[in-house]
Amino acid sequence: MQTPLLQVKHISKTYQNSKGWFRNEKVQAIKSVSFDLKRAHTLAVVGEAGSGKSTLARILAGEMAPSAGDILLHGQNLNDTNQRQRCMDIRMIPQRPSLSLNPRLRVGMQILAPLVQHRSLTRSLRQQKLYATMRDVGLLEEHADYYPNMLSASQRLRVTLARAMIVDPEVLVFDQTLSAMDITMRAQLINLLTMLQQSRGMAYIMIGHQLSMIRHLADDVMVMQQGEVIEFSPTDEIFESPASEYTQRLIYAYNELVQGPNS
Ligand SMILES: Nc1ncnc2c1ncn2[C@@H]1O[C@H](COP(=O)(O)OP(=O)(O)OP(=O)(O)O)[C@@H](O)[C@H]1O
Ligand SMILES: [Mg+2]
């Protein structure tokens, strides 16, 4: 059997509150979360507010360490990989991508930033890589000289995608990235991500409740509640026969929206 691209094994995270009334109180944000993700596959993660989705995302992207558990990429434990490499392999797209751009820097420089930090490439190779990545996400070469405010919202989103992709990551994590988008932009992004997944074989982890997006993109859906995984199934199964009460509510509300209340 082929080793899955990503294996998450019994990840837990306990936060220690350092401020306020509940100082020194511990919050167990996620408890023994495990799953596998194959190359070119998409996993959707849904769950109530505070169920631990962002905590999981940040741990995967290397922003913080888990309290316990292991993450393996190509069968290799990420604890044994250096932090730099690891941050290139799994990258997170922020919730409001436009806000993560610096208004005073040309977008070409911003897309290149992770590459400059991470790799010693010649100037001309870097330039080639920049233009190739920009083309991949549907930007033009001349956009490299623009400032973010000269671009449309959709183009700015493409800039943040290009910035994540310039280091050839294997996994992209989207934490509620689509929730603030209008329908047109969401549709554009879904098409773009589908295309990029086919050409590059990237795996996606999509956090959020956009069920139409989940239906289009996700192979599997993982449902979290109070830090635990309560359901993990192929997307079709989740939509046809949701098992947990939370998932049932989510799916029924979606069906009502799509088909009308009386169907
Ligand atoms: N830095 C932190 N310090 C202490 N507790 C935290 C911290 N970050 C998150 N928590 C707590 O951990 C739990 C999980 O939070 P998390 O942000 O991962 O949930 P979430 O599923 O992403 O929620 P949402 O849907 O609102 O984004 C919550 O109880 C939250 O209050
Ligand atoms: Mg969150």
TrEMBL record:
<dbReference type="GO" id="GO:0005886">
    <property type="term" value="C:plasma membrane"/>
</dbReference>
<dbReference type="InterPro" id="IPR050319">
    <property type="entry name" value="ABC_transp_ATP-bind"/>
</dbReference>
<dbReference type="Pfam" id="PF00005">
    <property type="entry name" value="ABC_tran"/>
</dbReference>
<keyword id="KW-0547">Nucleotide-binding</keyword>
<dbReference type="GO" id="GO:0005524">
    <property type="term" value="F:ATP binding"/>
</dbReference>
<dbReference type="GO" id="GO:0016887">
    <property type="term" value="F:ATP hydrolysis activity"/>
</dbReference>
<comment type="similarity">
    <text>Belongs to the ABC transporter superfamily.</text>
</comment>
<keyword id="KW-1003">Cell membrane</keyword>
<keyword id="KW-0067">ATP-binding</keyword>
<protein>
    <submittedName>
        <fullName>ABC transporter ATP-binding protein</fullName>
    </submittedName>
</protein>
<keyword id="KW-0997">Cell inner membrane</keyword>
<dbReference type="InterPro" id="IPR003593">
    <property type="entry name" value="AAA+_ATPase"/>
</dbReference>
<keyword id="KW-0813">Transport</keyword>
<feature type="domain" description="ABC transporter">
    <location>
        <begin position="6"/>
        <end position="251"/>
    </location>
</feature>
<keyword id="KW-0472">Membrane</keyword>
<dbReference type="GO" id="GO:0055085">
    <property type="term" value="P:transmembrane transport"/>
</dbReference>
<dbReference type="InterPro" id="IPR027417">
    <property type="entry name" value="P-loop_NTPase"/>
</dbReference>
<dbReference type="InterPro" id="IPR003439">
    <property type="entry name" value="ABC_transporter-like_ATP-bd"/>
</dbReference>
